[in-house]
Structure formats: C-alpha cells, structure tokens
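FAQ
Q: What does a multi-component entry look like?
A: The components come first, one per line:
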Amino acid sequence: MNDNSILAYAVLGLLQQQPRSGYDLRKIFANTPMRTFTDSPGAIYPALQRLEKRGLVRSHVQETSGLRRRRLFRPTVAGTVVLKNWQRRLITRDDVVNHVDELMLRFSFMDETVGARRAAQFLNALAAELASYIPTLRQFLKAQAQHMPLSGRLALESGIRSYETLLRWSRNSIKIYKKRKKGETRS
Amino acid sequence: MNDNSILAYAVLGLLQQQPRSGYDLRKIFANTPMRTFTDSPGAIYPALQRLEKRGLVRSHVQETSGLRRRRLFRPTVAGTVVLKNWQRRLITRDDVVNHVDELMLRFSFMDETVGARRAAQFLNALAAELASYIPTLRQFLKAQAQHMPLSGRLALESGIRSYETLLRWSRNSIKIYKKRKKGETRS
DNA sequence: AGGTTCATGTAACCCGTTACATGATTTC
DNA sequence: GAAATCATGTAACGGGTTACATGAACCT
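Then the predicted structure of the entire assembly, as tokens:
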C-alpha cells in the first residue's frame, strides 16, 4: 500500500488530540497557522475516506439532539501506530532538502504521541543533518557567486539563512527539552 | 487556459538564461540548490511539451556531427512575456503563507528579465507583506501557547523565526540594491 | 564486447484544485 | 421567510511520482 499524504498525517495528528469532524479540521486549516494545509472539502473529505478505508481512523455520526449531523473521526490503534512510525522515521538529506514542512509537522505532535525523549532525539538528528547540509550550500554559493546575477545570489543566500535559522532553532529547542527534563526529575 | 506550474516557470526562467535541453535541466535540478525541483524525466519532458504546446518555448533538434541528439529549447517572445508577467504579479498574503518557494523563484531570475529596479520593488512589497503577517503569528502563539504542547509551540516558533529571517533578508537585500544603484550612477 | 553515461520519452497512479451541489439549522 | 452558516459530499482536471523502456555514444 501507498504511504499516506502529508495532509493525511496532519489529519491523523489532529485526530490524535481529540475526535473531530471534517468540518472541524477544515476550520483548523482555515483559521490557524496550520493554514499551509488546504481547507478544501475536496481534499479533506476524500482524505478522511481514504484513512477510514485503510483502517487508520473510525467514524460514527454524532446523534445528539438538536445538532446538525456531524461525522466524528477518531484514530484506530493501527492509525496511532502508523502515526508514531512516521514520526520516528530517520531524518534523511532528502527530508531536509525537499520536505522541511513535513519534518516540522512530524515534530509538532511529538509530545502528545511519542513523548519528549523522542522529540529531543528528533531535534538532535535534525541538527546533525542541517549542520552537514548547510556547508555544501555555502560552498556552492562561494564557487558560483561570480557566475550568478545578484538576484540569484541573494535568493540562494536566503535559502541558506533559512536553514541556519532552523539549525539555531533546533539547538535552542534541544536546550529547552533538557531544561524541562531536569525540572521534572527534581520535582 | 490554466496557469503554468511552478516547475514550468523554473524551466522557463532557466531557458531565459540560455537554450538548454531537457537533460540539461534535469542535471541542474539534480546537482544544484535548485534540487527542490524534481529532476524526474516524467515531470521535465511533459512540462517542456506543455510549454511548447502553449507556444511559450520552441525547440529544435541539434544536428551537430558526432554528438548525441539533443532537443534544445528556447523561450518564444510570448514565453518571455508570460515569465515577466508572472514575476511582476502583486504579492499576496496567500503567496507568503503558502508559496514562499514560488516567491523566491520569481525573484531569483529578476535581474536577468525585469531588471534591478523591479527586483527592488519586489523586495519592498515582500517586506511589507511579511511585516504585516508576522505579528498575527506572534499574536496567535501568545494567545494559544498555554493550550499547546511544547513541541507544538516550538514548531510554531520555528515558522515565525523563519519568516523573521526572510524579512531581515529582504530588508538587507533592499539595501544592497540601493548601494549598487548608487555605484552605477556614479561610474 | 560490455558497461556507463547521455538523452528522451511513455503510462498508470495518486491526490490536491476547482467548482458544483445539497440540505439542515441558526439568525435576524 | 430570507440569508448566513453548518456540514458533507462529488466529479473533472492537472500535474508530479514512480516505474518502465529504448537506443545512441563514449570509455576501457
């Protein structure tokens, strides 16, 4: 079977927090910083149907009195497993080059699913991959700068800075997890 | 007719620099920081066919002696117009939220197509849109932080920092364009 | 002669986009 | 009772992904 789409994983992560309807998900994708995901019904409802067909979520119509009919979805045990396995995948160069958004999505639900220890491990792996990737970009820029127009050079510089910011963020976040761990063992 | 895909615009921009074959493009997408684009033949060759069907590029087989046959593509006048119009589009909130990559691609060929003045205008518009968008993210984080798990908070913080870095980059780049302009008028 | 690289393609599949459609419930 | 919102769907379309396929030229 195929891998789930990134939208499907976003849905699975949100359902992990609490049961929600398709419309609930659409509202989240429309009104929060998760608006990078589509809130189109033509994407959400088919995605939910696929998840259910694959046995990763279960749904039943809510039949409380006076309310509009809502189909509530919640993850199955298999769905939770699939979500966790996705989050625990090794971080590859390809992830860093082409799928940073997916990496951040994997991370954003980690506390609630695989726990703080795993989250910190994830950050360490991410920092390592970034620390190895960034120099290759800097090297390319240095070698090619003279042959590139100003806008091209600047565009590349922008990409590099973005990765550097992400590296600083991940190192800083690692510290925060360490601090919190200390606080917990003491209390 | 439909808009061209972002891959199609990347191709069009590269052909604007010099005539290239599908294989040339694949090598660029495989071996340079433009590797965010696919180098799959199943994407490149159909994209070139569509561009030709739409009259935006023209191709002819290179018939030099002793070489492997190569189909060289170059933009038509219409293709150049379409590329420039795409680059000159107004920057929207939606661009900043969902299509930053496309914005950077638009910018990266600007010197060679619409010129330095337009590039500087683009940066000003980008900085303005970012300066208006970032506070809404900060506000959301402040309001929701207490209801969010640590990893969720951090993921959002990462997104905000990325936008802040982009804003700093654009302001810095504006300065560089101003400096270069001064130098040119003086010389 | 055989392997590698060059070079160009095709076809099935998946899924997000866009647009349309329907009806119930709340609100004024 | 009209408009807005809630809520869930469907269908055509486009284009990237994956995998397969073919053959010429170059290298050893």
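Q: Is there any commentary attached?
A: Sometimes. For this entry: Residues 2, 5, 7, 38, 40, 42-43, 46-47, 50, 66-69 of chain A lie near DNA strand C (CB under 10 Å from a C1').
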